[in-house]
Amino acid sequence: MNETSRYWSMARRTPINRRRLLRAGTSIAVGGLSLPVLAACSSKKSGTPAPAVQTGARTAATPAPASAAKVLANDAPIPSWAKRLAWEDPGPPVRGQTIDLAGADPVTLDVSQSLGSAPIRAVSYVYEKLLWLRGDWWEDTAVVPGLAQSYEQPDNTTVILHLRNNVRYHNVAPVNGRQFTSADVGWNIDYDQKSALLRHWGSTQKWSAPDATTVRIDLASPYSSLITEMADVHNVMFPREVFEKEGNFAKTAIGTGPYMLDRYEPKVQVSWKRNPDYWRMGTDGKPLPYADAVNQFIFADVPSSIAALEAGRLAGGFGAGLLPADGEPLSQRQRNLLIPVGPWMNGLWMLFNLTVPHWQDVRVRKAALLAMDQQRIIDTVFLGKGLWQGGMPAAIADFSWSQDKLKQALKPDPQKAKQLLDAAGATGLEVTSTGPYNNDIEQAGQSMLNAVGFKVNLNPQQQAEHYAALASGKFDFFIYKVDWISYDPDYWTYGSFHSGDPHNYARINDPDLDKMLENQRAELDHDKRKAIIDNILQYVLVDKAYIGPMPVHFAYHPQQPWLKNKPTDSFSHENIGVEHAWIKH
Amino acid sequence: VRTFVLGRLLLTIPVIWVVSVLVFFSIRIVPVDAVEARLQDLGYATPTQLAKMRHDLGLDRPMYEQYFVWMRQVLRGDLGTSTYTGRSVASELGKAIPVTAELGFLAFAISVLLAVPIGVLSAIRQDSWLDYLCRSVSIAGISVPDFVLATLAVILPSIWWGYFAPLGYTRLWNDPARNLQQCLPAGIVLGIVISAPAMRIVRSTVLEVLREDYIRTAWAKGLRERTIVARHALRNALIPVVTVWGNQVGALLGGVVLIETIFSLPGVGRLTYTAILERDYTQIVATVLFMALVYVATNLIVDLLYGYLDPRIRYA
Prior knowledge:
Chain A is globular, with a radius of gyration of 25 Å. In chain A, about 30% of the residues lie in helices and about 15% in strands. Chain A contains 18 helices and 21 strands.
């Protein structure tokens, strides 16, 4: 167990006075009004005939020193992680049921055109990835087999994937249940590389398909994130026929997953029906999934979805989790619910716009960092349910700094902050925060910055306005919430701070930092890469104070006790493991 | 009457045109355009990509030109496609209207059922404890915001009795019982909200009518209280009440935006709410125009009702 594991907790009921007061007060006023409401994987060698070799050649790959080959273990019928995070039921499995979950409106089903969480949740049963991160949970990000049963890295610029030979696309036109092969992987690599939004395949120069179940990927330069990128939530294996027919994947979702899209009714629900030809087997020797159908009901209002859960209408499905303000009272009054609690998989920063003159002075940025007391924000805004965080989400436990190190490195020092601001001639500096995320955090930040000599104006923006400002660079600073996710440290380093990356919203332009970022990307040795990333975090957070890290709250993932063997939803936004679940009251 | 109705219908045309101009241009003046709003989902896009998206949607043209293009489409019966979802605006509106229409009908029915008896009771028992209670209920109804009432109506039954309406949305004609379970709570909340001011108007107008000479005459004739109130007082008291209800359509159309969101109903209100957040220009203009039409039509009906309720009124 690492040091952050102690934060795992299961909810226990304790009485709360606020709710009792609410009950008493409102029962007189509106209790009567509520009455009418009541009235009313296999061997590596394929048995499938090999098609002609297909390639997506660009230029020749450069050989690099050999590294050890990695072969993934075969998967068990119910993964170990499912047992750990779900209400266990040894079976026999119950088939033929419908599972109702909460959800958001995806608007589009094309996850290659949208990095939002709602579309990926809507199609996470339909599409599958080559690899998965086991448990999709912060302390368990080991790579496990998906559509690829194993992979090898014969050298630093070559990856060979071995695909399963028993995977078929859904038996729906225009794909009609054909086999998933290495050519599909190649098509998806090409599609990804042509996409303006996706960027999973790094420096891939060439792919080839020697047979139906083998894909060879040649890179122009070593890319340490390639394996985890294959497990990224958006790196799904689309069927090319849909694109060829419709030009996108917005309306038709056909994949290899356990469920087929049945109905999408905007603002109401998304429904799936069982894929009878799914490749993975259940404990009863028949193909998964166990449940015949899954419905995801679209709620625009969080309290309404919690009410539906409490009334037993919903089995779970709270995606990225509830905030402490919602999750904590729920965990206190509903002892029967399973409510795993873990850090929200996201980054929160004070994002300084480095093209604005006053933020170009390192003393001003450091003053802002030293003013910020993460513990105070955790205690006041997150109800004590949160973690200190650096540039990297605490959930990426392997690469992020430990809590002790963060508390030491980012220890608030208002006196020193005042001195730095004074030395920069910036005492009384008027700055404007346009953060859309959380007024409480913005106000806490405002109070702390004002206390050391800043004069902070809060000018909250709507989400749409906020993203437009990010893209255009027309902002001063704000508390920045990263709205899409990645488990890979490259995203949180190169993808956030490199001068050539479009996500470098702070507009950092530092050749020394760029060099370090490029080095971590090319370093395949885990320990060496970790050391480089440590140096990057030290440089970005402490030496240069390019961003001002903020704490992260815990996320609450409630689900019903009668939903068996469904691993909890996590920061991944995916409704993972529903194919293993059944309902048993 | 026919001339009156025809004249009013003709007047509707400039009203709707003015509304279309105001909405069309004002939504384009608001910071963040329809393309930038898509960054919420896209994550990022280069200026070139944004420019291409603007070109594809015709947003790179001058505003007046966009308006004429849109107007030409509308006159051909095409409300266009959503700038956010790419779906047909008319189709989205067509799916949402029955939901809001049902909700509006329920709300008005509940409003009448609450406001008239309570208002009359309050008037005929003036200054009694019953009057004070009814007035307090009315004031509470006006004071408590609709979203608070709606949130409580959703949350408290689930906490107290483990009750929540069936999930999703079922059309009335598919399963009336299930549909009512989904719509009635929202209708009740909305009904309470619009009945509160009506209660006060009913009370004051009934009080006023009860002091009229002809009511005194009715008493002198020895008629029963029930007959006097129901037959002689109420009908005459209803004229200002009808006016208030007509105006309450505006409150109702505003109320459905939040009520439908809280009760997860896919009506015009929720469509408007999401369209505004998504800067869905075509959808916003279409839904607001629809609301304006409903408001204008309701006021016409109210005017016609005056003639029915008061034979002295003649239409010129």
